[in-house]
């Protein structure tokens, strides 16, 4: 006799399609102009596996006066995700869009608020995506260990609220030093700017609310060797060795 | 020192926080976290167990809350374990790497055996204290 499916079973089978079914990153096709480095085969890291202090950051904007539903906002955001990023940071959308299991490539420079700096190539895995939210999880070598959720919902006044929430900790010691020296502030400003841009897209000029909570103020020395995968160091070395690669390529042809 | 079971239905953890609202939640209040340990102070409990029987698919909010609970447990020097996870929720624990920090057990019986074993080990470790920290302990 087959057991009768329970409502929970039903919800689970529906929920399954929203989750990625892989725990390591695999890029099927590299978009033109993107550098696919520090991504292929990298494993995901939860915020518990990072090195630095653990932070929960929440940014939200109320789209007051805009008659748009949460699902519509998320649909638009998924389609135009790179357009809301700072101009000097390149986010390469997965070929099939933001869907569970897809990988996005990120090429930018540290500290992040200027067009010049230390180049960094990394990526993110879309671990969850439904109609009203999507979540990225970061791989080894990324600045952060953890995840970031982009969502939209209706508040009690039926106003659509757009939210970015992350639970992260710096992946290794150099990143942690960088964050304490101001990169964390720069990064927070970046997300606030993204929400401001989304507000502008819908003709809203509401201020962005920010909530920063240090969940775990201690660093995890047990994760010190995460530095081996540091994407900034590896990207820097990769760039430095470009002439060598170029010469080898010329000679071999 | 006594060691006892602490079994919490996970709904209590997920829904007790009145800060959970449509699609967002703020930090668990200190009061809420204290509430978990209130009947079981740190000296008498070594493990917090969550009963996940009948739990709906865990959302990102649930995952965020579990991370906070893990940090809380770490500070209280307690282990966190769950039983009654469905196949899908078990997968969510795997992809989010929560399974590396939370003991997943199959049944309550197994939980009781584990707690009993832990209490026995703790009695021995009291007799022969060692300073070795586990991989999850901060230095």
Any key phrases for this structure?
heterodimer; A: Alpha-D-Glucose-1,6-Bisphosphate, Chain A, domain 4; eight-stranded antiparallel β-sheet; 5 helices; 8 strands; B: 139 residues; alpha/beta
Structure description:
The complex is a heterodimer of chains A (253) and B (139). Chain A is built from five helices and eight strands. Helices cover 28% and strands 26% of the residues of chain A. Chain A is globular and about 65 Å long. By secondary structure, chain A is α+β, with helices and mostly antiparallel strands. The N and C termini of chain A lie far apart (67 Å). Chain B is an alpha/beta fold. Chain B has a domain at 13-19 and 28-47 and 70-104. Helices cover 43% and strands 14% of the residues of chain B. Chain B has five helices and six strands, in the order βαββαβαβαβα. Chain B has helices at residues 10-16, 30-37, 60-75, 87-95, 108-127; strands at 7-9, 20-21, 24-25, 47-51, 79-83, 103-105. In chain B, the strands form two sheets. A four-stranded parallel sheet of chain B has the order 1-4-5-6. In chain B, strands 2-3 form a two-stranded antiparallel sheet. Chain B is globular, with a radius of gyration of 15 Å. The two termini of chain B are 25 Å apart.
CATH structural class of chain A: Alpha Beta
Return the structural class of chain A.
Answer: alpha+beta
* Strand order within the widest beta sheet of chain B: 1-4-5-6
* Inertia-based shape of chain B: globular
Rounded to an integer in angstroms, the radius of gyration calculated over CA atoms of chain B is 15 Å
The assigned structural class of chain B equals: alpha/beta
Q: For the CA atoms, what is the radius of gyration of chain A?
A: 20 Å
**Number of helices in the DSSP assignment of chain B:** 5
Q: State the strand order across the main sheet of chain A.
A: 2-3-4-5-6-7-1-8
Q: Return the string of H and E elements of chain B.
A: EHEEHEHEHEH
**Main beta sheet of chain A: strand number and arrangement?**
8 strands, antiparallel
CATH architecture of chain A: 2-Layer Sandwich
Percent helix range of chain A: 25-40%
Number of strands of chain B: 6
Mean pLDDT, all residues of chain B: 64
- SS field, number of helical segments of chain A: 5
Beta percentage of chain A is 25-35%
């Amino acid at each position: 006799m087959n057991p009768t499916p329970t409502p929970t079973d039903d919800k689970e089978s529906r929920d399954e399609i929203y989750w990625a079914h892989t725990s390591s990153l695999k890029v099927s096709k590299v978009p033109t102009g993107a550098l696919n480095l520090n991504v292929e085969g990298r494993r995901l890291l939860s915020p518990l596996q990072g090195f630095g202090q653990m932070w929960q950051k929440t940014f939200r904007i109320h789209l007051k006066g805009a008659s748009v539903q949460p699902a519509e906002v998320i649909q638009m955001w998924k389609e135009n995700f790179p357009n809301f990023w700072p101009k000097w940071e390149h986010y390469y959308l997965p070929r099939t869009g933001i869907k569970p299991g897809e990988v996005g490539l990120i090429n930018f420079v540290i500290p992040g608020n200027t067009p010049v700096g230390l180049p960094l190539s990394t990526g993110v895995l879309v671990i969850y995506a439904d109609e009203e939210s999507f979540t990225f999880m970061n791989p080894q070598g990324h600045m952060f260990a953890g995840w970031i959720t982009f969502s939209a919902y209706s508040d009690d006044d039926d106003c659509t609220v757009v939210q970015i929430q992350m639970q992260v900790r710096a992946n290794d010691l150099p990143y942690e030093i960088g964050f304490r020296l101001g990169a964390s502030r720069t990064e927070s400003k970046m997300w606030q700017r993204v929400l401001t841009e989304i507000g502008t897209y819908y003709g809203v000029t509401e201020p962005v609310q920010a909530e920063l909570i240090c969940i775990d103020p201690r660093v995890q020395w047990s994760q010190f060797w995460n530095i081996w995968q540091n994407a900034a160091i590896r990207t820097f070395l990769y760039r430095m060795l470009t002439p060598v690669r170029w010469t080898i390529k010329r000679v071999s042809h | 020192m006594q060691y006892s079971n602490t079994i919490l239905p996970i709904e209590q953890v997920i829904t007790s926080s009145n800060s959970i609202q449509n699609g967002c939640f703020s930090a668990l209040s200190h009061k809420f976290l204290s509430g978990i340990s209130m009947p079981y102070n740190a000296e008498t409990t070594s493990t917090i167990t969550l009963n996940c029987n009948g739990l709906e698919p865990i959302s990102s909010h649930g995952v965020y809350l579990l991370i906070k609970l893990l940090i809380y447990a770490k500070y209280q020097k307690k282990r966190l374990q769950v039983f009654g996870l469905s196949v899908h929720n078990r997968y969510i624990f795997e992809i989010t790497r929560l399974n590396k920090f939370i003991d997943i057990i199959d049944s309550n019986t197994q939980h009781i055996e584990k707690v009993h074993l832990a209490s026995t080990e703790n009695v021995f470790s009291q007799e022969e204290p060692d300073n070795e920290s586990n991989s999850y302990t901060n230095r």
